[in-house]
């Protein structure tokens, strides 16, 4: 997968809802610009400085799809905005390079295993103190 991602110039991910967003995170780690729906968990690490979040509208799922019942709100990506983002990156290679560099820096500083490990350890300490007070 890394070899395939390394060959790509840009990742386009027009998702309705995304779990963690492994594809966007991996591409950002590689310094590749990401154009993705500005909704769901990807927004935990994407912003307008390190990627190109695509506008969206939340719409109810009209009919059941697999395990998903009709009714919950899903993002409907603005395809015209996504096309504009891709066009900007194609027209301005320096912009693509800057966004890719910011993406790499951002992912490596926020999602590095040591950073995440410290956050998990701190959270576990808070939970342990809370549990101790509850007796």
Molecular structure report:
The chain has a 3-stranded parallel beta sheet with strand order 1-2-3, with helices on both faces. Strands 4-5 form a two-stranded antiparallel ribbon. It has one domain: Rossmann fold (3-Layer(aba) Sandwich). The protein has 5 helices and 5 strands, in the order H-E-H-E-E-E-E-H-H-H. It is an alpha/beta fold.
In short:
With 135 residues, the chain is α/β, with parallel strands linked by helices.
- Calculate Rg over CA atoms: 18 Å
Helix content: 40-55%
Number of domains: 1
Q: Specify the oligomeric state.
A: single chain
Strand content: 5-15%
**CATH fold category name:** Rossmann fold
The structural class is alpha/beta
Largest sheet: 3 strands, parallel
CATH superfamily: Glycogen Phosphorylase B
State the total count of DSSP E strands.
Answer: 5
Measured between the Cα atoms of the first and last residue, the distance is 48 Å
Along the chain, the helix and strand elements come as HEHEEEEHHH
């Amino acid at each position: 997968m890394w070899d395939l991602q390394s060959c790509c110039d840009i990742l386009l991910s027009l998702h309705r809802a995304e779990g963690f967003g492994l594809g966007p995170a991996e591409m950002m780690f590689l310094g590749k610009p990401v154009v993705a729906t500005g909704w769901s968990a990807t927004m935990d690490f994407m912003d307008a400085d390190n990627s190109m979040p695509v506008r969206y509208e939340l719409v109810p799922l009209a009919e059941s799809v697999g395990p998903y019942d009709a009714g919950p709100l899903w993002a409907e990506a603005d395809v015209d905005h996504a096309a504009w983002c891709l066009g900007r990156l194609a027209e301005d290679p320096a912009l693509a390079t800057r966004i890719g560099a910011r993406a790499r820096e951002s992912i490596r500083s926020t999602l590095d295993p040591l950073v995440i490990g410290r956050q998990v350890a701190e959270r576990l300490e808070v939970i342990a103190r809370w549990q101790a007070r509850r007796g």
